[in-house]
Design goal:
heterodimer, A: 11 helices, 69% helix, B: alpha+beta, Rossmann fold, Coagulation Factor XIII, Chain A, domain 1, 4-stranded antiparallel sheet, 8 helices, 17 strands, P-loop_NTPase (chain B)
Chain lengths: 282, 422
């Protein structure tokens, strides 16, 4: 029998964990977009306001923060109007937290589908991240409108080239959130009791990140450790880029970039590894 | 000569049950701690039994392009595992599977349907999950909607669908898939009869041309016989027979039917019964038709029984036979005429003619009655058997209704309409 060229081979040992190539996005574009569309359309079924919630939700949170942290606790907004100070923190944090929460349950929520049909499993978390990215971009429009209004009122100097950092921050942010979610989903598929710990860690992480306060309130001796958190760097750089009221720490940005990419790579690796055997155990 | 499209080489699949993947971090961590850090010997740590199950053992199989291959076997024989391996849903423990072309898997209907979305959205969603590109679905959308027969509700969320509509829509998508290899598991067991007929028709159409390769698992031997060119029979993770459908199916049925055809006891002491009656023997003897070795609807069945009879005296004895379906409905309850016997051995016979019972599972009970009212002994479910379907020509592959299926002739008479006479 002569050797025939095969299109595909399935073998236990030849399961290449890190076979993640650029062609992945081209081959799975339809599925990626279809899942994203499903999540977007389904999440606003039978709600009256529908997609308006994408705008409304960060604005309502801003109102709560303004009352609790601005008026009651009286945390400094560094001289900025409350709404422009809180909005970026809220939008970026919500993106991170929603993204992690959505991707964390990939294996558990989709076990019935994974058990019936094959497609690259990692499409699911990628599309979940895509949905969050779309929401983030829509919320950015709200932020930019508010920002433009106060800029016109003259609350802060006109920004310069630092705004070019924003796309980079978005990439880092997405990599970090997706990577964290992937790691958690791989762990959660095996150890269900980690769910509560992850929820706890996520809440703790919010307080370790300057979401509703400015990083300047951290005591100087703790600062080096505090800035080790890539999300701190992302949010603080974001504020700095728009309001130019302090220096941008490029060395921190470089560190946070490396950290985010490492988290993403670790996430993809763990996820792909888990995806091979998950059906037999979940 | 043949173009092989899928090839399995020494494929095995091991499932670990029990300890493995305990799902608790604490257990795995203490296990790791004991093994690696405290270096306790492994045998002390086997707190729970670890079960291993070879769902498949050394499967070698090749499938040719354009072939419709059926899989047959009892539950747990490994058929579904085999399909899941080929579909890449789970990985083999050993061995290698090679193949060419795109695979679509239909292990259930409506995989990934979202309840909040409309029928139309779900066509795109399900189709994409099954491996179609968006533009392919767009091209086939009208065909899919027409096939489903639920045009009026296509823009309604599927959560408002009846289960029948849901299945229709799901199958309409599946039927219009266009892969090189199609893997189907038992999906024909759903839907109403008219729709089932439509699906089989569609399956015949898609398998008939365009070199489509189909792997098909079903318990519906009628469908296997009609659709497949080759059938593989599996048992306990291994292929026991493969070849022409008629042969493989008949052998499988024969084996499956060796259930409860015969009971015999040497002495009255060990035999079931009481002071009046002790059963010596009951047996069911099918009179197979030439060339067949399984009970189908045409096969006459002989029932033989023998019993020891005590304390007879002048009482009149009647022996009765009840035939029930496995689901409990009584098909008939017949009895002998009354006889007076003294102590001794009595034997009885009965013939259930062919072309009487419909296909299904049945059991037989015997009862013995004294003086028309006084029940001496009832031997419940002493024989059981399955009747398989047999059809020569029919476009309908679903279950034939009714408990009996007699060959009463149905006659039609024709009278032409004579034009000109009013």
């Amino acid at each position: 029998m002569h050797k025939k060229p095969w299109d595909w081979e399935i073998e236990a040992s030849a399961a290449r964990v890190f076979s993640f190539q650029p062609a992945f996005f081209r081959n799975n574009k339809d599925l990626l977009l279809r899942f994203a569309r499903r999540d977007l359309v389904a999440s606003y079924q039978q709600t009256i306001l529908g997609p308006v919630w994408i705008f409304l939700q960060p604005l309502l949170t801003t109102l709560v923060y303004y009352i609790v942290f601005g008026k009651i606790v009286r945390l400094s907004t560094e001289g900025l109007p409350a709404v422009v100070f809180y909005l970026p923190g809220i939008i970026l944090w919500n993106f991170f937290s929603d993204c992690v929460m959505e991707t964390m349950y990939t294996f558990i929520k989709n076990a019935h589908v994974f058990n019936k049909v094959y497609f690259p499993r990692i499409v699911v978390p990628f599309s979940a991240a895509l949905v969050q990215l779309v929401r983030l971009l829509i919320q950015l429009v709200v932020f930019l409108l508010v920002y433009a209004y106060y800029l016109w009122q003259g609350y802060y100097p006109v920004p310069g080239v630092t705004l070019l950092l924003i796309p980079l921050l978005l990439i880092m942010q997405t990599a970090l959130a997706l990577g964290t979610g992937l790691v958690m989903s791989a762990v959660l598929a095996k150890y269900r009791d980690m769910e509560n710990i992850f929820h706890f860690l996520l809440r703790l992480f919010m307080f370790a990140t300057p979401v509703f306060y400015a990083a300047s309130i951290i005591p100087p001796q703790l600062r080096w450790f505090y800035w080790f958190n890539p999300l701190t760097v992302i949010i603080e750089t974001w504020r700095a880029a728009f309001f130019s009221w302090k220096d941008i720490h490029y060395n921190y940005i470089a560190l946070a970039f490396v950290e985010s990419m490492l988290v993403l790579l670790a996430g993809i690796w763990l996820f792909q590894k888990r995806a091979l055997t998950v059906i037999d155990t979940i | 000569m043949h173009d092989t499209i899928i090839e399995l080489e020494n494929v095995s699949k091991l499932y670990r049950l029990g300890n493995y993947g305990s799902g608790s971090f604490k257990e795995d961590f203490t296990g790791w701690w004991n093994r690696k850090v405290l270096r306790k010997p492994a045998d002390l740590l086997q707190t729970r039994q670890q079960y291993e199950l070879w769902a498949l053992k050394n499967i070698n199989l090749s499938v040719n392009r354009g072939e419709v291959l059926g899989f047959l076997g009892s539950n747990g024989a490994g058929k579904s595992t085999l399909l899941k391996l080929i579909a890449r849903i789970t990985l083999p423990t050993t061995g290698i599977i090679r193949g060419k072309g795109r695979i679509a898997t239909l292990l259930e209907v409506g995989t990934g349907f979202h309840h909040e979305l409309t029928g139309r959205e779900n066509i795109f969603l399900n189709g994409t999950i099954l491996g179609m590109k968006t533009r392919e679905i767009k091209a086939k959308l009208d065909e899919i909607i027409a096939f489903s027969g639920i045009e009026r509700f296509i823009d309604t969320p599927v959560k408002r669908y009846s289960s029948g509509m849901y299945v229709r829509l799901a199958f309409a998508i599946a039927a219009n898939l266009d892969p090189e290899i199609l893997i189907i598991d038992e999906v024909l067991a759903v839907g109403d009869e008219a729709f089932q007929r439509k699906c089989i028709g569609k399956m015949k159409e898609v398998t008939g041309h365009a070199g489509r390769t189909v792997l098909f698992v079903s318990h519906n031997t009628q469908a296997l016989k009609n659709l497949c060119a080759r059938v593989v029979c599996m048992d306990k993770g291994q292929i026991v027979e493969e070849g022409l459908p008629e042969k493989v199916i008949a052998d499988y049925l024969k084996k499956a039917q060796q259930q409860f055809f015969y009971q015999e006891y040497a002495t009255p002491e060990e035999a079931p019964g009481n002071d009046h009656i002790r059963i010596k023997k009951v047996s069911l003897v099918p009179r197979f038709l030439p060339g067949f070795n399984a009970i189908d609807i045409r096969t006459p069945l002989e029932i033989h029984f023998e019993f020891w009879y005590f304390n007879g005296a002048s009482d009149s004895l009647i022996a009765g036979i009840q035939l029930h379906t496995l689901s409990g409905e009584c098909i008939f309850d017949i009895c002998s005429t009354g006889h007076c016997f003294s102590n001794g051995k009595v034997s009885g016979h009965c013939l259930i003619p062919g072309n009487f019972l419909n296909d299904g599972s049945y059991y037989i009970s015997l009862s013995f009655v004294k003086n028309t009212t006084n029940r001496l002994f009832h031997f419940e479910a002493c024989l059981s058997f399955d009747v398989e379907d047999y059809r020569t020509q029919s476009a309908w592959f679903g279950k034939w209704l009714g408990y009996v299926r007699p060959a009463f002739p149905v006659l039609l008479e024709y009278e032409p309409i004579l034009t000109g006479i009013v």
